[in-house]
Amino acid sequence: MAVPPARRTAYARSVSSEFPAGGWLSAFLGPRRMDEVEPARLRASDADRERVIAILTDAAGDGRLTLEEHTERMERAYAARTLGELAELTADLVPPEKRPFLLDDRPVTAFFRSETRGGRWVVPTQVPVTALGGKVTMDLCDALLRSRHVVVRLAVLMGTVTLIVPEGLRIVTAPGAHITSFKNEVRPPRGAEGFPPDGPVIELAGFVFGGRVVARSPRRPRKGLFRRA
Questions:
Q1: Distance between CA 177 and CA 6 in Å, rounded?
Q2: Are 123 and 146 in contact (CB under 8 A)?
Q3: How far is the C-alpha of 198 from the C-alpha of 130, rounded, in Å?
Q4: Which part of the chain is the DUF1707 domain (predicted)?
Q5: Is the separation of the CB atoms in 86 and 55 below 8 Å?
Q6: Kind of pairing, strands 182-185 and 201-209?
Q7: How far apart are CA 38 and CA 42, in angstroms?
Q8: Taking CA 82 as the corner, what is the angle to CA 79 and CA 87, rounded to the nearest 5 degrees?
Q9: Is the dihedral of CA 195, 201, 206, 207 positive or negative?
Q10: Strand partners, 204
Q11: Rounded CA gap, 156 and 149, in Å?
Q12: Helix boundaries (H) for 62-197
């Protein structure tokens, strides 16, 4: 449903009263950490190598790679030390949405559309998220966090931001944040009474006007009738 122009103007005025022009612009752009290591230079794990090897094996099986190419790329995969070295091996084999990990650390933006960031992606220490009449979904369940304290800087006007996080990852609101609607459904670890004090934290900063933020844990798989507990 389209938002009436009068309502859009009212929201814009209310936000402008809280944030002057310079503050509004900086909130949308978000601060960038210049001292962070580029995602491509981060060290790869054994699990990252296995993801790449699986794609190489499938490509050899359906003829996209010759035997010689497969052998050469497998050797490079086992010898790779960084995510960038691994990313090169599958760049011409699968589309971006099916690659084993995402090295794009640009701000997440959704202007009157939907934007999803998920899978094996590198999460910066500070993540600018902008939603203007749009929907943003950030799935952190398989993400690689650069820090155990990640700040999500929100600039949301009549939009929705959904965070899907693993159980035990605590969500907090920064002092001074202006979030008109926030629903936190994140669960503590299975069997625990609360969140571990030294566990990873996602801090929500910035502002949300005329929209909402939802944080939840992934749905637990249902136990089948004959499945063992």
A1: 26
A2: yes
A3: 29
A4: 42-93
A5: no
A6: unpaired
A7: 7
A8: 90
A9: negative
A10: 152, 173
A11: 21
A12: 67-79, 83-90
For the chain, the domains span 5-32+105-216, 40-98
User: pTM of the full predicted structure?
Assistant: 0.73
Contacts of 96 (CB under 8 A, 6+ apart): 102
Give the closest residue to 30 by CA, choosing from 99, 107, 96: 107
Residue type present at position 61: G
Angstrom CA distances, 186 to 78, 108, 109, 148, 165, stand at 37, 21, 23, 17, 7
Q: Closest Cα partner for 44 from 138, 122, 148?
A: 122
Name, in order, each residue with C-beta under 8 angstroms of 107's C-beta and a sequence gap of 6 or more.
Answer: 29, 30, 127, 128, 129, 130
Strands 144-145 and 122-123: parallel
Contact in structure between 117 and 110 (CB atoms under 8 Å): no
